[in-house]
């Protein structure tokens, strides 16, 4: 299995809703990432998990809450989002350490906040 | 620290013509370099990567790139463009030293292929 699977593919939520994005990989990668991508822009790093521990938080607002329950799963919990949070949310995974190559990206969740 | 500069936010080529997308990087240690492609409303797909060894790297869909340390460049080429190549292309750099570190992306190049 060489894929990163993200669900749902599309999500519309109100500003008072609570929702979660899910990401799963079975490649044995021990680093997992959340990125946010606005239209016509490169992905922006949000969070990095290494060996299931949060290692990087790029000053993301607390309305985004990541969780890594095990080495294969990564969640992003959403609460009280703003319309400007509408974007494509990408999950990625990679090996850790020297010799590590590139990231494998999922196909993303298109989030619309209304 | 590392950074990536992609020259040209939009590139148009005719079908069958050479594709050349430019990428220059800055890195304090030997880098790993990548090209990703993104089709509309999809995630990023790895085209090719340079880590060590041969500096001419071949990827999927007929693309290749050459790592030139003296020029700090990693330009992406394809001899003959196809309509299906129309997409957004991102160059990215990652430090070769260990631990989980983020990719640094260039700003992207939108490739248009004209019939």
- Total strand count of chain B, please? 11
Query: Unreliable runs of chain B, pLDDT <50, ≥5 residues?
Result: none
- Characterize the main sheet of chain A: 7 strands, mixed
What is the β-strand count of chain A?
11
Note the total helix count of chain B: 0
Approximate helicity band of chain A? under 10%
Report how far the terminal alpha carbons of chain A are from each other: 36 Å
| Radius of gyration of chain A over all CA atoms, rounded | 13 Å
Structural class of chain B: mainly beta
Biggest interface goes to:
A-B, 33 and 27 residues
From the N-terminal CA to the C-terminal CA of chain B, the straight-line distance is: 41 Å
Order of helices and strands of chain A: EEEEEEEEEEE
| General form of chain A | globular
Structural class of chain A: mainly beta
List the total number of helices of chain A.
0
Report Rg of chain B: 14 Å
Cα shape of chain B: globular
Oligomer description: heterodimer
Percentage of residues assigned to helices of chain B: under 10%
Mean pLDDT of chain A: 92
pLDDT averaged over residues of chain B: 90
């Amino acid at each position: 299995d060489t894929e990163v699977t993200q669900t749902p593919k599309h999500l519309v939520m109100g500003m008072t809703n609570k929702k979660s994005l899910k990401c799963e990989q079975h490649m044995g990668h021990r680093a997992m990432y959340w990125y946010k991508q606005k239209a016509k822009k490169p992905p922006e790093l949000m969070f990095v998990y290494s060996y299931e521990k949060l290692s990087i938080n790029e000053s993301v607002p607390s309305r985004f809450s990541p969780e890594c329950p095990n080495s294969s799963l990564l969640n992003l919990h959403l609460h009280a989002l703003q319309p400007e949070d509408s974007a494509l949310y990408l999950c990625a995974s990679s090996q850790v350490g020297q010799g590590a190559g590139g990231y494998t990206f999922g196909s993303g969740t298109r989030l619309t906040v209304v | 620290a590392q950074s990536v500069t992609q020259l040209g936010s939009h590139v148009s080529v005719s079908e069958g013509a050479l594709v050349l997308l430019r990428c220059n990087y800055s890195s304090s240690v030997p880098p790993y370099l990548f090209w990703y492609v993104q089709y509309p409303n999809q995630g990023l797909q790895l085209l090719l990567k340079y880590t060590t060894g041969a500096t001419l790297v071949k990827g999927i869909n007929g693309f290749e790139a050459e790592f030139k340390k003296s020029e700090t460049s990693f330009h992406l080429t394809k001899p003959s463009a196809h309509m299906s190549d129309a997409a957004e292309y991102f160059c990215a750099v990652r430090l070769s030293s260990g631990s989980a570190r983020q990719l640094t992306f260039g700003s992207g190049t939108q490739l248009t292929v004209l019939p």
